[in-house]
C-alpha cells in the first residue's frame, strides 16, 4: 500500500510518500516541504498547499492519505491555520476518492518510536532507521510527514479489523435481540391461546 503522509501547516507543510510491504517493511518514495509566504493572503496560501497536495496525489498515486490531527495548541491562530491546511489536503484527497485518516501526534510517535511522548529528534531518528535513510529529512515537517505515512501503514489494518469486528458484533447483537423479541412474542401468543 502507498500512503501520502501530510504534516499540515501554513508556513511549512510536510508531504511524504511511503510504500508498505509485507509485515512492517516500509520504503520511502518521496518527501518534500511546501512553503507559503507568511505575508500572503490566507486564501492564496491554502491554494498553494492544495495545489502541491494535488500534484503529489496525481504524481505518486497514493492509496490513502494520512494527515496529522490538530488536537491542541497554545496559539489558536496557529491551530486554525494547521487545521485549514489539513482540510484543503483532505478535500483534494476526497476529490480523488482517496480515504483520509487523521492521526494524533501521540499516535504517530507511539507507532514510530514506541512512545507517545517521544520528541522530534527521536521521531526523526526512528524514521531514518525504519526507512533506511542516510540523510536526515529536513526540516522536521518532512520527517513528520514520513512518520505519519508509516503510522498509517501500521495502524490502519488493525483499525479496519477492529471496525469489522465491531460491525459483526453489532449484527450478532441485533439478530439476538430480534430472536428474543420473536420468542417473547411467540410465548405471549401461546400463553393467550391457552
TrEMBL record:
GO CC annotation terms, alphabetical: cytoplasm; Holliday junction resolvase complex
Compartment(s) where it occurs, according to its Swiss-Prot or TrEMBL record: Cytoplasm
Signal peptide: none
Cofactor binding notes: Binds 2 Mg(2+) ion per subunit.
Pfam families tied to this protein: RuvC
Catalytic residue list: 7, 68, 141
Binding annotation for Mg(2+) 1: 7, 141
Alphabetical list of InterPro entries matching this protein: RNaseH-like_sf (IPR012337), RNaseH_sf (IPR036397), X-over_junc_endoDNase_Mg_BS (IPR020563), X-over_junc_endoDNase_RuvC (IPR002176)
Cofactors named for this entry: Mg(2+)
NCBIfam families per record: ruvC
PANTHER family the record matches: CROSSOVER JUNCTION ENDODEOXYRIBONUCLEASE RUVC
Name assigned to this protein: Crossover junction endodeoxyribonuclease RuvC
Native organism: Amycolatopsis coloradensis
Amino acid at each position: 500500500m502507498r500512503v501520502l503522509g501530510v504534516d499540515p501547516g501554513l508556513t511549512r507543510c510536510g508531504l511524504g510518500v511511503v510504500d508498505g510491504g509485507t509485515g512492517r517493511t516500509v520504503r520511502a518514495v518521496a518527501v518534500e516541504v511546501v512553503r507559503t509566504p507568511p505575508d500572503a493572503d490566507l486564501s492564496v496560501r491554502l491554494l498553494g498547499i492544495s495545489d502541491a497536495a494535488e500534484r503529489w496525489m496525481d504524481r505518486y498515486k497514493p492509496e490513502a492519505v494520512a494527515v496529522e490531527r490538530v488536537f491542541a495548541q497554545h496559539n489558536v491562530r496557529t491551530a486554525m491555520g494547521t487545521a485549514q491546511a489539513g482540510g484543503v489536503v483532505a478535500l483534494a484527497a476526497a476529490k480523488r476518492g482517496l480515504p483520509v485518516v487523521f492521526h494524533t501526534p501521540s499516535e504517530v510517535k507511539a507507532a514510530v518510536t514506541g512512545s507517545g511522548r517521544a520528541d522530534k529528534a527521536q521521531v526523526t531518528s526512528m524514521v531514518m532507521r525504519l526507512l533506511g535513510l542516510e540523510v536526515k529529512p529536513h526540516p522536521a515537517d518532512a520527517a513528520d510527514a514520513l512518520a505519519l505515512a508509516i503510522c498509517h501503514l501500521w495502524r490502519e489494518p488493525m483499525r479496519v479489523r477492529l471496525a469489522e469486528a465491531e460491525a459483526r458484533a453489532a449484527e450478532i447483537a441485533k439478530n439476538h435481540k430480534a430472536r428474543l423479541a420473536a420468542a417473547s412474542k411467540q410465548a405471549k401468543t401461546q400463553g393467550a391461546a391457552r
